[in-house]
UniProtKB/TrEMBL annotation:
Residues 1-21 are annotated as: Disordered. Keywords: Membrane, Transmembrane, Transmembrane helix. This is ABC transporter permease subunit. The chain crosses the membrane at residues 50-73, 79-100, 131-154, 160-184, 196-220, 325-345.
Length: 362
């Protein structure tokens, strides 16, 4: 058989090479297609409705118990909103990993992921679509909690702006957890492994970060000459009246300004900092103001003058007017979520270079 080659004209544009589906950029139509498919599967599931019902009942029960406890004990009801919102965040961090941590390896094990990969859908379409579906499912749980959050907010403890900002930040934090879970789902072959790794990541941001912050105290503690405002020892020895003066002495100083970022990345600290009302005394306000004041104190490090004079029985109310911490912490969490999404997109590219043993492609 003879093959003829037809030369192109000198000014003829080059013929473009065919583009692989995985090389195409993201498209809204592709993302929407994947998200709708994922959400339809969830809506058909009976377990989905049961989970929403259990969530509604649990959040409602805890909200009523908190409100009833403050009413019975005569406590400040402004604490109710902070406690209910913290409970919703904690419950969300438990549920959110299950919504995206099996989205990719679950489809790969079922043999349905390869069907999507051979279509015109790009890896970004598949990854972002699955992320939006998982995030939408997490937001459905947050929506179910809105009646109880509104009720607790009406008792006090926040402003309208603080309420809206807290909900937005809470929604973003749930999206970050979904993105992290999606990344682990693309990295591991087994759904159990990706779920465990996602929970470990959530625990690292919440509990392990606090433990590491405490464990770093010996490493950042030194003995230094500092200014102290306290009782002069000579006045006690002479039997005279106690008086406070400023003097220089040796003290152990913990430089928490070097490790405060371990607190800033904690989702509970981020949420508390967004909901805290500025201009209030942290000692006489709700949990948000107390957490924010403690975090800002760690960020500032040791004071210029150590206060050790407690002669006065009345303490002037202090106001925490430091810059907010939550933008830094939320930014760090969003970067982690973006990294998880980037890993998922990269691992969805075809053809595969290597596959884990026993992995089912189609």
């Amino acid at each position: 058989m003879t093959t003829f080659t037809v030369p192109l004209e000198p000014n003829h544009p080059p013929v473009p090479e065919p583009t692989a589906p995985g090389a195409r950029a993201i498209s809204w139509q592709g993302v929407r297609t994947i998200a709708v498919l994922e959400l339809r599967q969830r809506i058909r599931s009976t377990r989905w409705r049961v989970a929403l019902g259990v969530w509604f009942g649990l959040v409602g029960l805890i909200s009523l118990l908190i409100g009833g406890a403050f009413a019975a004990l005569g406590g400040d009801p402004t604490w109710a909103f902070g406690l209910v919102l913290m409970f919703v965040l904690g419950l969300g961090l438990v549920v959110a990993p299950t919504l995206a941590s099996t989205a990719i390896n679950g489809d790969r094990n079922a043999g349905t992921l390869a069907i999507l990969q051979v279509t015109l859908l790009s890896p970004a379409d598949i990854a972002v679509g699955k992320l939006l579906a998982g995030w939408a499912a997490a937001l459905a749980f947050l929506t179910v909690s809105l009646p109880f959050l509104l009720w607790s907010a009406l008792l006090g403890g926040t402003t309208a702006g603080g309420f809206v900002l807290s909900l937005v930040v809470l929604a973003l934090l749930l999206g970050v957890v979904c993105a992290i879970g999606l990344g682990f789902s693309a990295l591991t072959a087994r759904t159990a492994g990706s779920s465990v790794l996602t929970y470990v990541a959530v625990a690292s941001l919440t509990v392990i970060s606090l433990i590491l912050f405490v464990l770093t105290f010996p490493a950042v503690t030194t003995t230094e000459q500092v200014q102290v405002h306290g009782i002069v020892e000579e006045s006690i020895a002479d039997g005279g009246e106690y008086r406070c003066e400023t003097f220089t002495d040796q003290r152990e100083v913990t430089h928490t300004e070097q490790t405060w970022w371990l607190l800033a990345i904690n989702p509970f600290v981020i949420l508390a900092d967004t909901g805290a009302q500025p201009g209030l005394d942290p000692d006489r306000s709700g949990p948000f103001e107390a957490i924010r004041a403690a975090t800002n104190q760690m960020r500032s490090g040791p004071p210029d003058v150590f206060e050790e004079c407690w002669l006065s029985s009345y303490a002037e109310p202090r106001v925490d007017d430091a810059a907010p911490v939550w933008p830094w912490g939320l930014g760090a969490n969003l970067l982690l979520g973006a990294a998880g999404l980037a890993v998922a997109i990269r691992r969805l590219r075809v053809p595969y270079r290597t596959l884990p043993g026993g992995t089912r492609v189609a």
